[in-house]
Amino acid sequence: MYSVIIPTFNRCALLKQAIDSVLLQQVRQIEIIVVDDGSTDDTALMLAEKYPKVRYFYQENKGPGAARNKGILQSKGDYIALLDSDDIWLENKINHEMKLFQQFPEAEMLAGNASGFLEGELRRADIFSQRKINFPQKKPRFFEWSLPIMKLGPVCNTSTMTFKRATLEKMGSTIFDESLRFDEDWDLEFRLFAQFKALLYPEVNCHVHIFNDQTRLFYSAQGQEKTNEEWRNIWQQQILIINRYLNKLYWDMNIAKGFELRIEQLGQLLKDAGG
């Protein structure tokens, strides 16, 4: 079975599109789990009326990491995929990933490419290219710590991640750090990439959407700059996350020096911003 975990918060209309994009995958053994992170809209009613087979769980607002953890805990599939409620999957995503797992049996998780939309307008047609992740001969590649993007933020978009159940079970009961309200996916990547083989593939399998409605913090609307407070919060949390893992034996000396340099850069940015 293939399980899809969809965390949501006041995304009733958009949630329909996310669920429909999963149902269009034409996969028989699939379960869709929606974890409602304290919505005040008609999410529960809409799901009961339109998608009675979707497994629905409600919790008080704790953030996307906690919602994903709850969904993973309730899932039954041998493969577990994540999808945010304002994103949509493209056709044949699941079938393509099942073929990749067969082709690369050593892969313990997969992450595909995505396009990025801001307020409905295309911002990035190819997120991996924007992050300077290249695919020689357009073939999949395993993650390497030397990828420059890892020092700056998440390598993968959460809505493109698919895991083997055994991989997540090895990580324990708390997959995402529930104390983090943003960059929780980046924190996960440090632990994930240190322990398991992660296969990245170049095909776009997801449209990622960002809206200027405060449901995804620290993303400014198109044409608007982030405030100094937003930048300070981002930099402070990035320092916290990198420091968590600097003393771990995840990388060689040269790679560790790169992360140490990044902390120095972030510290200077905070100093210059008065933080």
From TrEMBL:
Pfam families the record matches: Glycos_transf_2
Domain Glycosyltransferase 2-like, chain residue ranges per copy: 3-116
InterPro entries membership: Glyco_trans_2-like, Glycosyltransf_2, Nucleotide-diphossugar_trans
Spans through the membrane: none
Gene3D superfamilies the record matches: Spore Coat Polysaccharide Biosynthesis Protein SpsA, Chain A (3.90.550.10)
PANTHER family recorded: GLYCOSYLTRANSFERASE (PTHR43685), GLYCOSYLTRANSFERASE 2-LIKE DOMAIN-CONTAINING PROTEIN (PTHR43685:SF2)
Name under which the protein is recorded: Glycosyltransferase
Organism of origin: Thalassomonas actiniarum
